[in-house]
Write a structure and sequence with these properties.
homodimer; alpha/beta; Rossmann fold; 6-phosphogluconate dehydrogenase C-terminal fold; 2 domains; 6-stranded parallel sheet; 11 helices; disordered N terminus
Chain lengths: 313, 313
C-alpha cells in the first residue's frame, strides 16, 4: 500500500542540454521556467548567448541528465570536447531511435535512455525557441531490456517537467510507429508536390486547401528530412508498402477506412478526459510498455508507480 | 486601340443561386454585399430562410446567371420544378467538369458555362456560410470550343465580383489538373490514415504535426469525397499513377524534387506582385486558354479585353 498517496521522489537532478537550437533551446528554457537547474552547450556562440540570456548556465562540464539535442548526423560527435560526469544519464531527442541506440547507446550502455519528443516546427535554430513547445506533446522514452529503470524515470521526469506526456516504448517499436506517422507523411508530401509539378503550371494554379495541407511538410529542410527517412529506412519502407497496399483498394473502401481512422484520432485527441481511462502502472518494464502499446501515456511520476491513461474502446 | 482605357461593360445581370449551402449561400451573400441583385432557391426551408435574412430573394423563377451550387449527384435534378428563363446563362460550382458538361451542358448547350471555385472547407451547409469564402480564391471557368464568349464573361464577372481570380480552362484540362491537386491529395490522406490505423494505437499515439497535416482532408464527408473522385476517375487514376512513380524513386531525389515544387509554389502564392507579369488578353478563346495553361489568372474584365497576370520564370 505504499502507492496510495503521492510521495516525494528523489531531488530532481540538473539537466545539461547539448545543442541549443529550436528543440534544445526550447527544452532548456522550459526547464528554467519549471525551476530546474539547467546548463548547456552549443558549438554556435549565438545559440549559447541566446540560451544564457534565458537563464541557462553555459559550460562544457555536463552532469545530471545530459540531453543530446543535435541533428541525427551530429549525434555521435556532439559530446566531443565536452566532459560528461561518469554518473550522468544520457538521453537524446533524435527522430529515430534504433540507430542512436546502436551508436550513442553502445557508448554509454545502461546510462543511455533514448527519447523523442513529437513536436517541432518547420522552423529551426535558436531564433525559433519556444518554451511552450512541449506542452501537451507526446514524448517517447525508450525502455530496452537492459535499461536502468531509475534512469528511465529521470528522463521521463524531464519530459513531464515541461508539460509533455510520456510514451514508454522500445526503440524498434518507436521506429516502426514513427515510420507510419512521420517518415511516410514526409515522403507522401514530397511525391504529391513533385507529381503536381509534373502536371504543370495550370495544376499548381488550381491548388488549394487539400494540396496545401498535403504538401506542407515538403517545405521542410530536405537534408533534415533525408536524414530522418534514411536513418529509419527499413521501417519506413514497410510503412510505405502498407500505404501503397491501401492505394490499390477500391476508392470508396479506401476513403471510408481513412475517414474512420482520422475521425477516431481527432476525437481521441480533442475529447479530453472523456474516452480515456485513468490508470497507474507499477515501475515495471512490461507494464510500462503495455501502456505505451495500448496508445497510453504517463502523465505523473509518483514514488512507486506512475499515473497516466489509455484510450478507451 | 479601343482597349487602352477601361470602358463600362454591359449592366451586370441578376444572379440566381440554386442550392444555398456553404458554397451557394456564401456566393449569394457575397454578391449581395457587392451590390448585385441576387435570388435563389434551396430544397431546405432553413437554408432558404438563412439566405433570405442575408438579402437574397427566394424564388423558383430563375434568370440572368443561374448558378447550380448543389452536390455532384444532385446536379442533373437541381432545376426540377424550377423555371429557368430561356435566355439565362447556366453555370455550376461542381468539383469536376467533364461529367457536368456531359449532362447539364448537354441540356443547356451554348448557354452552359462550367465553373469551379477552388475553396470551401470541411464544414458544409448553410450554417457554414462565409461571404469572404471566395476572396483570393482561384475560380476555374470553362471555355469549350462552342462556348459563347459573352456568356463566359458573364460567369467570369460573377467570380470577379466576389473577389476570386478567374482561370480560363477547358473541362478536360481542369479535370486533369484538379485530379493532381485535389482528388489525389484526398486519396493519399485516406491511405495515410488507414495505414496508420493498421500500424496500431502506439503509432496513432505518436502522431503529430506531419500526420495531422497529411490526414486533415480525410476528415471530410466520405460520400462527398467518393463522389468527387468517382466523378473524375480517369484523370485521378492517371495522377495517382504519377505519384506512385515518384514514390519508387530514391528518397533523397524524391524529397529534393518535392521540396523544389513546394517552395516555388509557396513563394508564388505569397510573393504578391513580385514574380508575376501583368498582362491583358483579348476576348479570344485561344488567348484566354493560353493564359490559364501558363498558370495565369484573369483579375479584371474590361470592354474589349481582360486584365490579369502570369507567374514569371
Amino acid at each position: 500500500m505504499t502507492a496510495e498517496f503521492p510521495v516525494p521522489t528523489m531531488p530532481a537532478p540538473p539537466v545539461a542540454v547539448v545543442g541549443l537550437g529550436q528543440l534544445g533551446g526550447s527544452l532548456a528554457a522550459a526547464l528554467v521556467g519549471a525551476g530546474r537547474q539547467v546548463s548547456g552547450w552549443d558549438v554556435d556562440p549565438a545559440a549559447r548567448a541566446a540560451a544564457e540570456s534565458r537563464g541557462v548556465q553555459i559550460t562544457r562540464e555536463l552532469s545530471g541528465v545530459v540531453v543530446l539535442a543535435v541533428p541525427l548526423p551530429a549525434m555521435t560527435t556532439a559530446l566531443d570536447g565536452l566532459t560528461v560526469d561518469p554518473d550522468a544519464t544520457v538521453t537524446d531527442l533524435g527522430s529515430v531511435k534504433t540507430s542512436v541506440l546502436r551508436t550513442v547507446g553502445a557508448a554509454y550502455g545502461s546510462r543511455f535512455v533514448g527519447g523523442h519528443p513529437m513536436c517541432g516546427t518547420e522552423r529551426s535554430g535558436h531564433t525559433a525557441v519556444d518554451p511552450d513547445l512541449f506542452t501537451g506533446a507526446r514524448w517517447a522514452v525508450c525502455l530496452e531490456p537492459d535499461t536502468d529503470l531509475r534512469r528511465w524515470l529521470r528522463v521521463a521526469e524531464v519530459a513531464l517537467a515541461v508539460g509533455a506526456e510520456v510514451v514508454p516504448v522500445t526503440a524498434a517499436e518507436h521506429d516502426a510507429a514513427v515510420a507510419a506517422v512521420s517518415q511516410v507523411p514526409h515522403l507522401l508530401a514530397a511525391a504529391l508536390a513533385a507529381a503536381a509539378g509534373d502536371a504543370g503550371p495550370l495544376a499548381l494554379s488550381l491548388a488549394a486547401g487539400s494540396f496545401r495541407d498535403g504538401t506542407r511538410v515538403a517545405g521542410s529542410d530536405p537534408d533534415f528530412v533525408t536524414a530522418m527517412v534514411e536513418g529509419n529506412s527499413g521501417p519506413t519502407a514497410a510503412a510505405l508498402a502498407r500505404v501503397q497496399e491501401r492505394l490499390i483498394r477500391p476508392w470508396p473502401e479506401l476513403i471510408a477506412a481513412g475517414h474512420t481512422v482520422a475521425a477516431a484520432h481527432t476525437t481521441g485527441r480533442t475529447a479530453g478526459p472523456t474516452g480515456r481511462r485513468a490508470l497507474r502502472a507499477p515501475l515495471d518494464r512490461a507494464a510500462l510498455l503495455a501502456l505505451g502499446r495500448a496508445g497510453g501515456v504517463v502523465t505523473h511520476r509518483r514514488a512507486a508507480f506512475v499515473e497516466g491513461w489509455v484510450p478507451e474502446g
